[in-house]
Amino acid sequence: MADRLTPEQRRLNMSRIRCRDTKPEFAVRRALHSMGFRYRLHVGDLPGRPDLVLPKWRCVVQVHGCFWHGHGCALFRWPATRQEFWREKIAGNVRRDRRNEAELMERGWRLVTVWECALKGRLRLHEDEFRAALAESVRSAQSQCEISSRPEPPPYEA
């Protein structure tokens, strides 16, 4: 399928995709702040410039878009065009995520990954459910936690 946009229009659209201050990131910030957690944003001296850093809890919170970071949820779909490019791009993002996560854990940081699907889509978590999972993950002694959407319900069987 041919792209309906000119290369200049496509370039402009792609340049407007944000890597920080996204709606999911703002939702996580609001939830954390309202529960009394304080954080720093995009700390440059940590690997990967994490979205949120909670120094008191020695915890890093990353807010990942399901498409850009290759999450296998209901929100993720491979594009129909330029599949080879997108597979390489997303695989590179996942490799970079793993490298940054390993380095953060080596430095003694705990990781919480919040996936976009936890906040968006038909399987998203209820707000109270999300807030409870987020608070529990930040306070947890586990080195890594993930918050994502509810599992797909099983198909109806008669």
UniProtKB/TrEMBL annotation:
Statement: the UniProt record of this protein carries the keyword Glycoprotein: no
Domain of life of the source: Bacteria
Chain residue ranges for the region called Disordered: 138-158
Pfam families for the chain: Vsr (PF03852)
Stored CDD domains: Vsr
Principal EC category: hydrolase
InterPro entries per the UniProt record, alphabetical: DNA_mismatch_endonuc_vsr, Restrct_endonuc-II-like
Family from the record: Belongs to the vsr family.
Main function: May nick specific sequences that contain T:G mispairs resulting from m5C-deamination.
Name of the protein: Very short patch repair endonuclease
